[in-house]
Design a protein that fits this description.
By secondary structure, the protein is α+β, with helices and mostly antiparallel strands. It contains five helices and four strands; from the N terminus they run αααβαβαββ. The chain folds into two domains: 83 residues, no CATH class; 33 residues, no CATH class. Strands 1-2 form a two-stranded parallel ribbon. Strands 3-4 form a two-stranded antiparallel ribbon. Strand 3 and strand 4 form a beta hairpin.
């Protein structure tokens, strides 16, 4: 039987680490096998942080179009969890798009370019 994440490092320790990264505004990479509790601990911790900050908890991936518009209109009202799985990402999603300069490559983060942005200078 596979050991769960809670048994490996402890659910409390992971929750505390999530809280610290949230407070310091640092990204956090959580790695582990399927079905060991990673998502559950993240969701539970996010719900607790939302409640402590008197914000409504929402999961972006589960929100419908009108809920997403409401979140954009009043972001201070919500605590939003965005679940991004690396296994579902293309490498360019993480690194961005290459903008070729004369002899160098500059990586433009996803979302920082427009239709008129030239990727070659």
């Amino acid at each position: 039987m596979r050991e769960g994440l809670a048994e490996q490092i402890g659910a409390k320790k992971l929750s505390d680490t999530i809280r610290l990264h949230y407070k310091l505004k640092l990204p956090l990479f959580i790695h582990g096998g399927m079905g060991i509790g990673k998502s559950s601990i993240v969701r539970q911790t996010a719900r607790e942080i939302a409640k402590e900050n008197e914000r409504e908890y929402k999961e972006w991936n589960e929100a419908n179009r009108s809920e997403k518009q409401e979140i954009w209109q009043e972001p201070s009202k919500y605590f939003v969890l965005f679940d991004l799985r690396l296994s579902q990402c293309d490498p360019s999603d993480l690194k961005g798009l290459p903008k070729l300069n004369e002899i160098t490559v500059e990586w433009l983060p996803t979302g920082s370019y427009t239709k008129t942005t030239s990727l070659i200078t």
